[in-house]
Design a protein that fits this description.
ABC transporter involved in vitamin B12 uptake, BtuC, mainly alpha, 15 helices, two-stranded antiparallel sheet, 75% helix
Length: 326
């Protein structure tokens, strides 16, 4: 057991991340900011920076859970559809009860329920997480229209609901504060607790981890549920930002999250990754998306960029593994 934990704990060091090391990502982020600011002086406007940070918060909240899942050699492609459905439920319950707290709890718990179902299918039925969560995504995308074929507006016009996304805690936007708390807590768990070492161990070698007394299925169930809860929270914030639950909200969001996580150096094969890398990956992708908008380029490029990033990051992951084998 000691050898497995030591190996897992030493896996995500910067020199092993190669081309995806934090230094490279920081330099890339700085170059992007300089290039976009040259093209448009609006890039450094307070309003624009605030908008970027709000979008980063949505991605980082789910990305924190997705990082843990990918390190454990699993993935959840249903998070985008789940956050849309969760936002619809949160808005509907808020309208029906007049309580923002009940609406928020309903949306977040729905996301957790989706994560639980995914966990059962993957760990009990032994369906690959890629297949299981694609199926869940399709069910949720269709199910949300059965729930309501049109957007659910904030009929009561409750200021407390919109404040979830537009409010400030001092100078800090509320979504950014929420994302920061989740990021810090997840970082501490992953890097400074036995549970975090177990995540790396299970992702690196699940058979050896099982022989050493760990329960990979139980651990993965927890990670799926946590990721689902975070998707529900992100859906709640998105519904608050739009002041309505939209059935098409979050479509393609799962690709943005996964692209950010693997751009940050998390391996698609499990056992390697850092939350700092995920944070930098989120910032890079959102800066690119913002640059596309303020430079007046075709906004469909926002869908193209994550796809390119996934391919490049997957290739770099292969290169790193080959180098490690040598």
């Amino acid at each position: 057991m000691r050898e497995i934990l030591q190996s897992a704990n030493s896996t995500p060091t910067p020199h092993r991340l190669g081309a995806n090391s934090p230094v490279v990502l920081i330099v890339l982020l700085a170059l992007l900011c300089i290039a976009i600011s040259i093209g448009s002086s609006r890039f450094y406007a307070i309003e624009n920076i605030t908008a970027i940070l709000r979008q980063c918060a949505l991605v980082l909240i789910i990305g924190s859970g997705m990082t843990l899942l990918l390190i454990a050699a699993e993935v959840d492609l249903s998070v985008g559809a789940s956050m849309a459905f969760a936002g619809m439920i949160a808005m509907d319950v808020t309208n029906q009860t007049g309580s923002v707290w009940l609406g928020a709890a309903a949306g977040i718990l729905f996301g957790g329920l989706v994560g639980l179902v995914n966990a059962i299918i993957v760990t009990r039925l032994k369906v690959k997480s890629l297949i299981a969560t694609i199926a869940a995504m399709m069910i949720l995308q269709g199910g949300v229209f059965l729930y309501s074929r049109q957007a659910i507006q904030n009929n009561n016009q409750l200021p407390a609901f919109t404040a979830i996304s537009t409010g400030f805690f001092g100078p800090v936007p509320v979504p950014v504060l929420i994302a920061a708390i989740i990021f810090i807590c997840t970082y501490i768990v992953l890097r400074h607790t036995l549970f975090g070492r177990y995540v790396y161990a299970v992702g690196s070698n699940p058979q050896a981890a099982r022989l050493s007394g760990l329960n990979p299925e139980r651990l993965k169930q927890i990670l799926f549920i946590v990721t689902g809860l975070l998707a529900g929270l992100s859906g709640l914030i998105l519904a608050s930002l739009m002041n309505a639950g939209q059935p098409t909200a979050g479509r393609g969001f799962e690709l943005t999250v996964i692209a950010a996580v693997i751009l940050g150096g998390t391996s698609l094969n499990g056992g390697r990754g850092t939350l700092l890398g995920t944070l930098l990956g989120v910032l890079i992708l959102q800066v690119i998306n913002d640059g596309i908008i303020i430079l007046g380029w075709d906004q469909e490029l926002q869908l193209v960029v994550p796809g390119i990033v996934i391919v490049l990051a997957a290739y770099l992951d292969i290169v790193r593994r080959r180098a490690g084998a040598r």
